[in-house]
Amino acid sequence: MDNVSSSNKLPQKYDVLINFTGEDIHRKFVSHLNSVLSTVGLTTFLHHHNAVKSTHIQEPILSHCRVAIVVFTQTYSQSAWCLNQLLQIIKWHETYCRHVLPVYYEIQPSDVRLQKGDFGKALKETAQQIFSGQELEHGMSRWSLL
């Protein structure tokens, strides 16, 4: 049912990359989204840190996608892995002018955009673990683009 692939079995092209974190969200929402997209003939790549061993989204996957869907949840900003992937997705969006569709699952869009509430607090804490100085400021401002 899921189109989760390892790097040695990658098709030439994906229509949609779905980026998320957590098995709970996978079972509750992402599996249904993936099923609907597959039903209408779209090829998806489910990208979450439990399924993909690499640190970063592989360039061939992202460059051949038409759309990236980022599923924001309360726990998304607690994951350094997710935040790094989000930076790659934003860069991909700016470079290739591809669409990024944010999905706010059980979280207010303003909490993500304005980096406030529990999401914002976790974002700052996680960012401070992986960045420092000017790089930290740059990352925080880039993440607010969605």
Automatic annotation (TrEMBL):
It catalyses: NAD(+) + H2O = ADP-D-ribose + nicotinamide + H(+). It is an enzyme of class 3 (hydrolase). Pfam families: TIR. Its EC number is 3.2.2.6. Keywords: Hydrolase, NAD. SUPFAM superfamilies: Toll/Interleukin receptor TIR domain. The keyword Lipoprotein does not apply. The keyword Repeat does not apply. InterPro entries: TIR_dom, Toll_tir_struct_dom_sf. GO terms for molecular function: NAD+ nucleosidase activity, cyclic ADP-ribose generating. GO terms for biological process: signal transduction. Residues 12-146 form the TIR domain. It comes from the Eukaryota. This is ADP-ribosyl cyclase/cyclic ADP-ribose hydrolase. It comes from Phaseolus angularis (Azuki bean).
